[in-house]
Structure formats: C-alpha cells, structure tokens
Amino acid sequence: MLPEQASTVAADIDNLYFYLIAFSVVATALIVALIIAFAIRYRRREGAEPAHRDRENWKLEATWIVVPFILIIIAFAWGANLFVEVSVAPDDAEEIHVVGKQWMWHVRHPNGRREINELHVPTDRPIRLTLSSEDVVHSFYVPAFRVKQDAVPGRFTSMWFEATEPGEYHLFCAEYCGTDHSRMIGRVVALAPSEYERWVEAADDPLVSAGEELFHDMRCADCHTGEPDATGPDLFSRYGTAVAVEGEDELVRFDREHLRRALLDPGARVAEGYPAVMPTFRGRLSDREILKLAAFVEARAEDE
Ligand SMILES: [Cu+2]
C-alpha cells in the first residue's frame, strides 16, 4: 500500500502516520456511534417528554478529557522528535548539491561529478542535499525515503537521508512548476559504498555532461524517452547498431554521421516504423553542440 521503506527514518514516519490514522478512525467511529445511539435513545416521543435532570459524573468527564489529551500529547512528542531528526543532518553527512531548473534536476557530487535527473548515493551513509533553483519553486521528493524539500530560487534549502537498501527509487518534483512539471521525474540510485566510490570516481567527460544537458535543453528527451511508447526511437540502444531506414533496402550504421544527418536533415533518412516528426535542428545547433550530443549518446550507449 505504501512505497517501500528505504531510508533510516521511513519506518518511524510510517509508524507515526499509522498511529495518527488509528487515533482518528477510533475517535471518529466512537463519536458517530454515540451520536446515532443518543439520537435514537433520546428522540422526541409523543407523551413521553424526557424530564430534565442534573447529573454529574466526574469520572466520565475526567476520562474523556484525560485520555484524548494523553494520546494527542504522545502524537505531539513523537512528531516533534521525528521532525527534529528529519530536519537536522548529522555532522558527518556528505554534501551533494542539487539545482532544480525547468524541468530537470542537476546534481553535483563533492568531487565534481555531475548528473542530470539521477542521483547516485551510497547506502549506510548520511547524505545532505543542498538545494536551490534557477527559476521557480521545485520540490525534491523521494517517496521511498519519506523525504521532501522545496528548492527555492534565491536561497539554499537542505534535506538529509540515509539510504538503507541498494536499489532504484523514484524521484519526483512535488511542486507544480510549469508545463512539463509532470515529466520532471528521475531516479535515485542507492549503491553499496564501495560501488558508489567506483561510480563517483569514474571519469566524467565534460563533453558528455555538456551533451547530456543539451539533450534535455533541446527537448530531445521529450521524444527520445527510451520508453516503448515514445514518439522517437531509443537512441541509446540503437547507437552503434545497423538500423532500418524507410525506403532503403540496406541497413545503415547508426554512428556519429548518422546522428548528424538526423539532426540537420531529418527528412532524408527516416527510421523505419516511426513517423517523420523529428524537427530539424539546422541553424539551431552548432557543430560543436552536435559533437557534444554525439559524445553523450555514444557514452550512454556504451553504458547500456
Ligand atoms: Cu519542478
């Protein structure tokens, strides 16, 4: 019913939540039941007007004041305690910078490694994210960790978590931020600490990261999502292979040159089975930018 619990605070937060729900359900049921029972029992009847009687029952009065009071104070103390725990990062937390921008997340690791719409973190180590925004308010939300924090332009905010289970988790923008808000999604990849070290130390080619940013900025990612129902083909699985082109018997090799031609003259070679809706980027992309895009597609293709 709930997303998996993949951080140190997730179980505590769920337990508090269940406690509040249980309290509300029991209190509501009790009140509704009493209203109905009293309405029937003391309804107005012909010839049987109930007489007014003064009755005092201090025990009953004390019970319905003291019991809910204690239950609510428990919720308050528990919630305040948890709130402080979730708000204050441990001193030894590792700091990662995250910048929200319509409509993507830029991530920068302590050693300078960057990524987009993805956040790699080690498990069993507290991580503090320092968030900011380049344009409007976004919100960094990882349901499996039970953490969410706004990224606000003109100021830094922060959040922290400690992942407990290696795996991939959803990352959502949880603040409506414009047209493509619903597509401002990504993933958090929790790796065992040794694997994270290897990942973060891996060479980060500036050409590739510039290409990745262009890929998002030029909206390539809108059509080339990699999903089976996407408008355009999955470039990363096709790059380096021979692909079928409309109206040609022979397959053509998907290399840098094919990519360049697809961008500058998309109508000339249309991938078989796809509509010819790829816009031309002639005049909108410089040769250098095409090189960056090619470097990114090539690097991602090698990863897969
Ligand atoms: Cu957003």
Give a short synopsis of this structure.
This protein is an alpha+beta fold and 304 residues long. It has helices at 10-41, 58-87, 193-201, 206-217, 220-223, 235-238, 256-264, 287-303; strands at 94-101, 104-108, 114-116, 118-122, 127-133, 138-142, 147-151, 157-161, 167-173, 185-191, 242-243, 252-253.
Structure explained in plain terms:
The protein has 304 residues and is of the alpha+beta class. It has two domains: 176 residues, Immunoglobulin-like (Sandwich); 98 residues, Cytochrome c-like domain (Cytochrome Bc1 Complex, Chain D, domain 2, Orthogonal Bundle). Helix content is 38%, strand content 20%. The chain is built from eight helices and twelve strands. The strands form three sheets. A five-stranded mixed sheet has the order 3-2-1-5-8, with helices on one face. β2 and β3 form a beta hairpin. The longest helix is centred in the first third of the chain and has 32 residues. The model has no long low-confidence stretch (mean pLDDT 90). Copper (II) ion binds next to loops.
